[in-house]
Amino acid sequence: MRKVEAPTLEEAYQKASQLLECSISELQSEVVQHPSKGILGFFKKNAIIVAACKPPVQKEAEPEASQEETLAAPSAEESVAAEILATVKEEYTAPAEPTFEKDAIVDSFFDADRHEDEAFEDEEMVYDELARLIEEQLKELLSHSCFDIDVVEVDVRDNTALIFIDGEDAALLIGKEGYRYNALSYMLFNWLHTKYELFIKLEIAEFLTSQQEMIRNYIKPVIETVEKQGKGKTRFLDGILVQIALEQLRERFPDKYVAVKTSREGKKFVVINEFYNHKSHE
Q1: If you write DSSP's letter for every residue of 169-222 in order, what string do you get?
Q2: Which residue in 155, 146, 245, 227 sits closest to 192, CA to CA?
Q3: pLDDT tens for the 282 residues of the chain, in order
């Protein structure tokens, strides 16, 4: 009996087949640990199985015994398999009341959906715990400021931290023309992306919502130009505005080249063009 570990169950069965020098159909195996992709690089698990080649079919002592009788009573094989498994279970730690499945390969495919559901539930738990941790750290950070902030909420979904901040002094965190908002957003992104590989969406007193609506109205003429001429560009945009415009235009034109460009003066704008156009976008 060999213990085999691999990223997936299929690879584990193939590796066991090579180590034991028998075909996959001749393997007698038990899944010790199902694989898990993990979240953000954490909690990743490989598939672990214990396997052995099935013992050769023993002939009946009586020559007159039919082939049907021999196949109908494989008690000797099951006894050998049970002894091997009993030895392995003593050596390796296994879940309570483990069960041995002779058709583990076939059953693993039927159980795939169930394991994916379990992995999704684990992902939700990790996201919820991560959101709670970030929320506590952000509250601690803001408690040392001079601003009166009484609402800090964080939700983590799809590798993005959705952060909502509000309070009597929330508008002061935005600043004139959003310069404080941009600085805080940049700081939070560098912290969360470096530590947790997360992107962020920061909402302070509905500032982000108002900016999104403003950009949505602004890019309407740009969209009309692109639809007529096949290409277009925005005016120079500052801070969060260029990112909002980029997101909305990519959503509107999924089959076109949409990107942020920087002028010689260092100002940023968004261009929309065809993917096959190799000319420089001005």
Answers
A1: TGGGGT-GGGHHHHHHHHHHHHHHHHHH--EEEEEETTHHHHHHHHHHHHTHHH
A2: 155
A3: 788 888 888 888 888 888 888 888 788 888 888 887 665 555 677 888 888 887 776 655 555 555 555 455 555 556 555 655 555 455 445 444 444 444 554 455 445 455 555 555 556 677 888 889 999 999 998 888 888 888 889 998 888 888 999 888 888 888 877 788 888 888 998 999 898 888 888 888 778 788 888 889 989 999 999 999 999 999 998 777 888 888 899 999 999 999 999 988 888 899 999 875 444 444
Helices 220-229 and 240-252: crossing angle in degrees, nearest 10, is 40
Can you give the pTM of this predicted structure?
Answer: 0.43
- What's the token pair of residue 147? 């601003």
Cβ neighbours for 32, distance < 8 A, ≥ 6 positions apart: 3, 48, 49, 50, 92, 94
Sign of CA dihedral 57, 61, 62, 63: positive
Reading phi first (left if > 0) and then psi (alpha if -120 to 50, else beta), residue 80 is in alpha
> What are the structural domains of the chain?
2-110 (no CATH), 120-205 (3.30.300.20), 211-273 (3.30.1370.180)
Residue 106: is it exposed, middle or buried by C-beta count within 10 angstroms (0-12/13-18/19+)? exposed
